[in-house]
Amino acid sequence: MGAEAPDPVDGSPPGTPWLSSAQLGPATIPNPSLANASASGLVVALEANFCRVALESVGPGGVDQLLCVRRTRLGKTGQQICVGDRVQVDGVDWTARRGAVAAVAPRSSLLARPAVANCNRVVVVMALVQPDLDPIQLTRFLLTAEATGVQVDLVLTKADLLAPQPLQDWRQRLAAWGYEPWLVSAQTGAGIEPLRQHLAVPGIAVLCGPSGVGKSSLLNALVPDLALRVGAVSGRLQRGRHTTRHVELFPIGAGGLLADTPGFNRPDLPADPVALVALFPEVRGRLGAGGCRFTNCLHQGDPGCAVGSDWPRYPHYLQCLEQVLAQEAAAKSRPAEPGLKQRGGRSEPRLDPRLRQISRKRQRQGDGPQGDGSTADLVAEEGEDRDWDPGALGSGPGGSMNPAPKP
Ligand SMILES: Nc1nc2c(ncn2[C@@H]2O[C@H](COP(=O)(O)OP(=O)(O)OP(=O)(O)O)[C@@H](O)[C@H]2O)c(=O)[nH]1
Ligand SMILES: [Mg+2]
Ligand SMILES: [Zn+2]
């Protein structure tokens, strides 16, 4: 592991920044009739100021992927672009294999973190050991996954490091949570083949979990010859080192795409306390037919509560509920200050418009985040916005395939 396979499109190793201006050269359009051509495709990777779009149909010269920036008028609508988005690309330069995203199709689902649109399945990946499996952290990841409304799978990695009895104990414990986990080892290959068959179906699946649990190792085991970079865990808590930095989709089976994502340790909890309990599959059935006496029941031992407390994750539920209520109260008592925007119960600084100006100027001078000014050629015509933040999403599923109205 660790060796990097060349990128199937441009020959660069995966994980390398988008092509620099030196690599790309000036945006030459030898055949004017090919300029301003448009195409549609799927965003398969997002990094810094660019996205890579896999085209629905192969273009002139066998080009099947384009490196794209975003049109300013799209940015002005607040429309963010995520991996998994179906997009319309215009201003295509087939020779340089570049274009600009002009419109985003409506999304069927949206996972906020990692940011992936239109996923059909969220695969929560946690290690059994190194780092030790923490039930609360696992619950938070599962809640985030369940909140998307798509199918949720649970994969527990590093099974080679645990004896059969503790493995069996985890199986039983998680069955009571309503999950049938896939216990796998990327090291020995145990459990990999059945999981590959399960995942190799049309649609987009997303690996999601903390750093160091083995998401990239799992992808390497599932998709031979991929050779994604992996990093050893370290420290007393055996934490990962955030080896994967960007979301990227890789083909698995016919029509199946699996996203490797950067690990993170603490997923946000959903905002609505009343909706929280439905994200616990083991008690979802108790909410139907009659349900609790009070429609706003928070299931804390209230009279006529149908959910009750006789389930193993009830203490986890109460702990999460307490946090959701606290973040809701904090958001209510704290009016949005000028210069701050409310997001998920937290205040975040707005991007100072002056910073955007500086950033653009710097990029024109060839000192952008990639240090290459490579977008300057692409933006000359329409002044594309290159300040997008892949982590900051629009207000939810939505978006429009209709290009934003011209100002
Ligand atoms: N023993 C054992 N080690 C594993 C297994 N899977 C992954 N590892 C090791 O765990 C460490 C972390 O693996 P990665 O694949 O980089 O983890 P990741 O989840 O992609 O981490 P980030 O990219 O930081 O989010 C590496 O040292 C791997 O060799 C496994 O099944 N068994
Ligand atoms: Mg990784
Ligand atoms: Zn109740």
Descriptive overview:
The chain folds into 3 domains: 1-111 and 377-407, OB fold (Dihydrolipoamide Acetyltransferase, E2P), CATH 2.40.50; 113-260, 3-Layer(aba) Sandwich (Rossmann fold); 276-333, no CATH class. It starts with 20 loop residues before the first helix and ends in a 28-residue tail after the last helix. The chain is built from 10 helices and 15 strands. It is an alpha/beta fold. The strands form 4 sheets. A 6-stranded mixed beta sheet has the order 10-9-8-11-13-12, with helices on both faces. The chain has a 5-stranded mixed β-barrel with strand order 1-2-3-5-4. A two-stranded antiparallel sheet has the order 6-7. It is globular, with a radius of gyration of 23 Å. The chain binds guanosine-5'-triphosphate, magnesium ion (MG) and zinc ion. Guanosine-5'-triphosphate is lined by residues 157-158, 160-161, 185-187, 211-217, 230-233, 240-244, 262-263.
Explain briefly what this protein structure is.
The protein is 22% helix and 20% strand. The protein has 407 residues and is of the alpha/beta class.
Number of domains: 3
Total helices: the number is: 10
The gyration radius over C-alpha positions equals: 23 Å
Say which CATH homologous superfamily of the largest domain is assigned.
P-loop containing nucleotide triphosphate hydrolases
CATH class of the largest domain: Alpha Beta
Which secondary-structure class do the elements indicate?
alpha/beta
Taking pLDDT < 50 over at least 5 consecutive residues as the criterion, the unreliable ranges are 1-33, 351-407
Mean pLDDT: 79
Helix content: 10-25%
For the terminal residues, how far apart are their CA atoms? Answer: 50 Å
The shape, in one word, is globular
Ligand list: guanosine-5'-triphosphate, magnesium ion, zinc ion
CATH architecture annotation name of the largest domain: 3-Layer(aba) Sandwich
Instruction: Please provide the count of β strands.
Output: 15
Strand % is 15-25%
The CATH topology name of the largest domain reads Rossmann fold
Q: Mind describing the biggest β-sheet?
A: 6 strands, mixed
Taken in chain order, the helices and strands follow as HEEEHEEEEEHEHEHEHEEHHEEHH
| Strand adjacency order, main sheet | 10-9-8-11-13-12
